[in-house]
């Protein structure tokens, strides 16, 4: 192609060329019907509940947020399931569903982090049917939903309020089971950054990197799409700008709002594109050793980012720029920069210090390598031995 051609500029950068080709790939966007975002928007919870005539709201929450359900000012006979675990398993879900069948709610509210919102999605679709959980695992196997669903995040990380997926650990196989359904999309999501002010700094740091991982993995995925790249890159930029500030001062309202938006954008990335190797490699840390999901993703983040860099160099450099890190096309330097970014937030980056035994690394590598729904979309093929190598370096 002659250099004077109007399309010549496309060709030196094959990354850009590939992504624009992806613009021809059909993509479906699903968003909560109503999104209320901003400081003080919590008042929308009562207004929505009144508008739909809710009389039997059921709030699905963790023990901390269960103690502050009154701030939602919900009408009627409010019931609370306040026993959501950090990495919810099948018995935890079954307990919540049993309570819901007893209460017969007309509105289910997820109030907490990603775990509470994930369980709320499942409770909303399971409380009016006798279909076993195993029958709805996978994409679009849920028949419908007849109760209203409201999602209110109190952390900035998962973006679960914006999506159609829920993850629950099977205690027998120790694997995360994913349910995806359009019927699990919230009727209203209320993102009030003021609710995140109480989050401790170590949780703020880890969940912030989880939000970053959602954005970066979607941005560099084989399924990456220009309609999502917009949210992914802006989400990374918001984390780069605000995460350190929010960790340093939990009461920084601007920083909290910036992170809440980054988390929401990360949630937008999950639906149509989803995550890749970072989450696959992080999952066994949570399912086998109860490392909190955000922390697991943070520990793994620099490893998979550097590994993937040769396949998506231009996009990785764009991520480094978004985070305010040196923009060098060298995987080793990219690793050092992002590892330092996480470590400077106070995140413990060594598996040995997180209670992961060295003799389990091989089994973890086997399990991570089997998560094909994520690994098949990684921009670079990641073998079992390469995963084990990541664990060993992280150890």
TrEMBL record:
What enzyme class is recorded for this protein? oxidoreductase
Which CDD domains does the UniProt record give?
A: Fe-ADH
Q: Which PROSITE patterns does the annotation name?
A: ADH_IRON_1
Q: Where is the Fe-containing alcohol dehydrogenase-like C-terminal domain?
A: 204-394
What keywords appear on the UniProt entry?
NAD, Oxidoreductase
Alphabetized GO MF terms: oxidoreductase activity
Alphabetical list of InterPro entries matching this protein:
ADH_Fe/GldA, ADH_Fe_C, ADH_Fe_CS, Alcohol_dehydrogenase_Fe
Keyword Cytoplasm among UniProt keywords:
no
Region forming the signal peptide: none
**Which positions fall inside the Alcohol dehydrogenase iron-type/glycerol dehydrogenase GldA domain?**
32-193
Q: Which cofactor does it need?
A: Fe cation
- Protein family membership: Belongs to the iron-containing alcohol dehydrogenase family.
Q: Which PANTHER family match?
A: ALCOHOL DEHYDROGENASE (PTHR11496), ALCOHOL DEHYDROGENASE 4 (PTHR11496:SF102)
This chain belongs to the protein called Alcohol dehydrogenase class IV
Organism for this UniProt entry: Bradyrhizobium ottawaense
Its taxonomic path starts at: Bacteria, Pseudomonadati, Pseudomonadota, Alphaproteobacteria, Hyphomicrobiales
